[in-house]
Amino acid sequence: MKKLFYRGINPYSFRSGEWGQVIGTSFKTRWCFIVEYKDGVIDYSPMIDTANYELNEEDEEE
Fold first, then answer.
1. How far is 22 from 15, CA to CA, in rounded Å?
2. Which residues pair with 28 in a beta bridge?
3. Spatial distance between the Cα atoms of 4 and 58, rounded to a whole number of angstroms
4. Structure pTM?
5. What single string gives the DSSP state of each residue in 28-52?
């Protein structure tokens, strides 16, 4: 199974430059990734803002 990671690349993004794991999606006036950071903080990041983030997929460790 693969894990999906999210990183905001806009300087005004929440935790810009920091990778967080995508743990799901939700509809909050628009579709958002639910992103959890290493310290347990959760953020909702709009999927439509593709110029403001990048995604990375990694194999899950067994």
1. 14
2. none
3. 7
4. 0.87
5. SSSEEEEEE-TTS-EEEEETT-GGG
Give the contacts of 52 (CB within 8 A, at least 6 positions apart): 8, 9, 10, 13
Per residue in 2-58, pLDDT (tens digit) is 999 999 999 999 999 999 999 999 998 999 999 999 999 999 999 998 999 999 999
- pLDDT confidence of residue 36: 98
β-pair type (53-59, 2-8): antiparallel
CA nearest to 19, candidates 32, 30, 45: 45
Average model confidence (pLDDT) across the chain: 94
Angle at 53 between CA 51 and CA 55, to 5 degrees: 125
